[in-house]
Amino acid sequence: MAYKGYRGIVSYDAMETIRNTNEWMGASARAIASYPIFALVPSPMFKMLSAWGRVTERSFARMVIKPDWEIPPIPGAEGQDHLVYVEPELERPFGDLVRFRVARREPMERRVLLVAPMSGHYATLLRSTVTSLLPDCDVWVTDWHNARDIPVSEGKFDVEDYTRYLTDFMTHLGPDLHVIAVCQPAPLTLAATAILAEDNPAAQPRTLTLIGGPIDPDAAATEVTDFGNRVTMGELEHLVIQQVGFKYRGAGRMVYPGLAQLSSFIAMNADTHRKAFVDKILAEATGAGSEGDKHNMFYDEYLAVMDMTAEFYLSTVERIFKNLEIAQNRFSIDGKPIDIGKIKDVAVMTVEGANDDISAPGQCVAALNLCTGVSDDRKAQHLEPGAGHYGIFAGKSWRLNIRPLVLDFMDEHAGSAPRQHPKRRRGGQVTGDTRPLGPEDDAKIGV
Q1: In terms of domains, do 48 and 95 share one?
Q2: 80-84, 286-290, 313-317, 343-347 — which is least confidently predicted?
Q3: Both 126 and 21 in a single domain?
């Protein structure tokens, strides 16, 4: 065990050394190639070198920086903008419940908890989702912490601890709540709702919307599910679990490093990312690049990664993907079975993207079959044509098609009159104008 720990620390610090070296090389190239005297050389080489340096330095620096929320002011009906303050409401070692307080605005009827994924990126991945909901809702989000910054003394954090956090957050916010779970947390959010249904029915949310989540990973194969089925848990632990190095507060904690996760993200769409960076370097060299262009806006978020605790990552793979505990309604906490069929008073909606290559269509809608206690008129499903994984919660498909449907679903099951919208539901199935908007996913730069 001592040898394994030593190897882990070396591996973790080796990755950080490589990242730091590339950042330094980019900064050095930018500085050297930008000397005024090189402007006298009749060659584009130095402009290209400077551009490569700027792009490289920024890219590798972003990998260890948590992005800011940067929520813009919300326009008010009286013509005055309302500033948005990001305030932790409940603070826990592994994640906070964060409130987006809109200054000088009366409380909204819709109260929404966004359950952000803990899958390698920060909760700020949902920035555009939050921004789109704030004009019509009071919004909270689960803001998970980077495991490398959490001391070992705080203990473990696995899928059961994650689910307990969700039940605590939902109980704190009260029953007049609408919950939206995006991607990875969808199965555990469903389990947390089932716990409340049995142990504390008064704390259940009004509605639960599951977006692109792996409720039943075997319902439709993707590269993610194929990888999980190809490797054993022992192989997975040996390949990807490392020990946080001495640079961070969590030194000694076993984690799935964000840098390792990022490399797998990029490898899935290597050609697309390669072209994006070549185009950005050419744009910088010719003066066509800018600080706020689509490349920087996308990659400042995409490259910012966080470590996950080893126990959370491994238990997710083993219990959600391999053993299908949620899909087969066999999930338990501390040995106590959690019955999803206990959910009766919560309206449930699923959203999937037709081109989702991470949680393929069929994986998320499986939740409706598990919710045997929910009547058909309180269930809805939506399959968005032409949309990939990113587009169904933060892209054009979300803004133009999915968001209005989700708000209508909240209103329909909150005891208030539903908002009028050209889309209609029939028999729990969302129907109407669902025209394709073109492919959208996290591989398409500038979504």
Answers
A1: no
A2: 286-290
A3: no
> Quick one: residue 415, left, alpha or beta (phi over 0 = left, psi -120 to 50 = alpha)?
left
Are residues 37 and 78 located together in one domain of the fold? no
Beta bridge partners of 207: 178, 347
> Smallest Cα–Cα separation from 341: which of 356, 359, 328?
328
Q: Is 24 left (phi over 0), alpha (psi -120 to 50) or beta?
A: alpha
Rounded to whole angstroms, how far apart are CA atoms 438 and 431?
Answer: 19
Q: Write down the residue that tokens 């555990």 correspond to.
A: 188
Range of the domain at 189: 74-232+307-413
Q: What is the pLDDT of residues 242-281, one digit of tens each?
A: 999 888 999 999 999 998 888 887 887 788 899 999 999 9
At 144, which CATH number? Answer: 3.40.50.1820
Domain shared by 104 and 162, yes or no: yes
CA angle 165, 166, 170 (to 5 degrees): 120
User: Is residue 441, in this structure, part of any structural domain at all?
Assistant: no
* Helix (H), strand (E) counts: the chain: 15, 17
147 CB burial (10 A radius; 0-12, 13-18, 19+): buried
Pick 13 or 124 by higher pLDDT: 124
Tell whether the model's pLDDT for residue 425 goes beyond 80: no
Residue 311 confidence (pLDDT) above 60:
yes
- What gap in Å lies between CA 439 and CA 444, rounded to an integer? 8
For 446, other C-beta atoms within 10 Å of its C-beta total 10
How far is the C-alpha of 102 from the C-alpha of 192, rounded, in Å? 28
Same domain flag for 221 and 349: yes
Cβ partners under 8 Å of residue 210, min gap 6: 181, 186, 189, 190, 348, 349, 350, 351, 364, 367
DSSP state of 102: E
Three-state secondary structure call for residue 311: helix
Please report the pLDDT score of residue 160 as a whole number: 97
Q: What percent of the chain has pLDDT over 70?
A: 90
Bridge-based pairing state of the strands 207-211 and 81-82: unpaired
